[in-house]
User: Which sequence fits this backbone?
């Protein structure tokens, strides 16, 4: 078992090195892939999710499910809005002449 | 935990309940940190240029060293869990103290990094160091940076406290039957703190540098 834990640690360090190399090479997707594999390796090698009781596995999958709902619904607006832009472009555009400036005290 | 398994059917049922209970807690933690990652997803998209400018001001060297420290700390503590399964009390204490020391080193480095950033006026608000049209996005990044590292650091402190508790109860219980489950449950928490950092590291230090 000790060999298993040490192997996981060595692979994690190698993946960290790959992640830094990929970042230097300029691949955003590569960084995400490395981080995802490292997270899975921790869940599998250190937290031993595959050996956990069935209920624990259900809780873990449930957490990931609700996380995906949170991220998907939360980011839906800024990724799909088409009627007017969001973010930097919004703050840098000139005032719409149809909208009078706010002069309230 | 008493050897008498009530209200559980058996000691195995009791242990499985402890593991499942910790995973349920970690599932709630996933959603807590999920809110932070939602901030990243939305604002790194809507304020891409300013966000990336902020990322380029973070210290990749300290972030990288801290990642190695935390991965090593997790591995060392898992060796302590293995020692507990083998009935080796000395191994638990050695691994626990090693993991806690590495965790403290992580926090000291993070504290030094914060100190430097405060000195460079990178805390969002009046007098923020980064100016120009991307200042707003950079301030959003640094709000996210300080909030996420503070929340993670708080979890680290709790984890170090739990590891110290495990070491203390193991030391006090020398000569008696070892309780493996508290060591294992704390190990799940400590590995989760490591896992969160593995996902925070690229978000705080790498993705804007691409």
Assistant:
């Amino acid at each position: 078992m000790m060999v298993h834990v040490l192997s996981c640690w060595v692979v994690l360090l190698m993946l960290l090195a790959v992640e830094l190399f990929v970042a230097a090479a300029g691949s955003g997707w590569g960084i995400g892939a490395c981080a995802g594999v490292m997270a899975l390796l921790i869940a599998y090698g250190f937290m031993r999710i595959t050996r956990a009781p069935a209920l624990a596995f259900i809780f873990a999958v449930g957490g990931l499910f609700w996380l995906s709902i949170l991220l998907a619904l939360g980011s839906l607006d800024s990724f799909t809005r088409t009627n007017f832009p969001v973010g930097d472009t919004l703050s840098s555009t000139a005032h719409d002449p149809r909208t009078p400036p706010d002069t309230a005290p | 935990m008493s050897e008498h398994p009530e209200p559980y059917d058996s000691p195995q049922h009791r242990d499985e309940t402890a593991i499942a209970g910790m995973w349920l807690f970690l599932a709630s933690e996933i959603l807590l940190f999920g809110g932070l990652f939602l901030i990243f997803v939305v604002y790194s998209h809507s304020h891409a240029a300013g966000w990336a400018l902020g990322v380029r001001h973070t210290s990749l060297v300290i972030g990288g060293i801290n990642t190695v420290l935390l991965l090593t700390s997790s591995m060392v503590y898992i060796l302590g869990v293995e020692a507990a399964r083998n009935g080796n009390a000395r191994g638990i204490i050695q691994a626990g103290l090693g993991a806690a020391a590495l965790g403290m080193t992580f926090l000291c480095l993070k504290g030094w990094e914060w100190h430097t950033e405060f000195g460079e006026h990178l805390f969002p608000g009046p007098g923020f160091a980064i100016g120009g049209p991307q200042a707003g996005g950079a301030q959003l990044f640094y709000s996210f940076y300080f909030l996420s590292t503070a929340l993670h650091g708080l979890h680290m402190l709790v984890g170090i406290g739990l590891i110290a508790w495990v070491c203390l109860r193991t030391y006090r219980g020398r000569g008696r039957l070892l309780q493996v489950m508290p060591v294992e449950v704390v190990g799940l928490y400590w590995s989760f703190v490591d896992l969160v950092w593995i996902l925070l590291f690229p978000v705080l230090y790498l993705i804007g540098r691409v």
Observations:
- The first helix of chain B runs from residue 11 to 46.
- DSSP finds six helices and no strands in chain B.
- The radius of gyration of chain B is 20 Å.
